[in-house]
Model the fold of this input.
Amino acid sequence: MKLGNDVIKNKFDDIDIKVDFLIELCQTLQVENLKLSSKIKDLEEDLVKKNETEELNFEQEALIQSKIDGLLTKLDSFSNNVSNVSTEYQSNG
Done:
C-alpha cells in the first residue's frame, strides 16, 4: 500500500510542478499582452496623427495650387490685355 501512495504522491508532485509552470507562463503572457496592447494603442495614436498631418498637407497643397492657378489666370489676363493694347497701338500708330 505504501508503494501506491508514493506513486500517487509523485504524480501529484508532477502535476503541481506543471501547474506552477502553467501559472508562470500565463503571468508572462499577460505581461506580454499588456505590453503589446500598449504598443498597439501607441501605434494607433501615431497613425491618427499621421493621417491628420497628411490631410493638412493635402489641404495646404490644394490651397497652394488654387493660388497658383489664380495667379496664372491673372497673368494670362494681363498678357491678353497687353497684347490687345499693343495691337491697338500698332494699328493706330
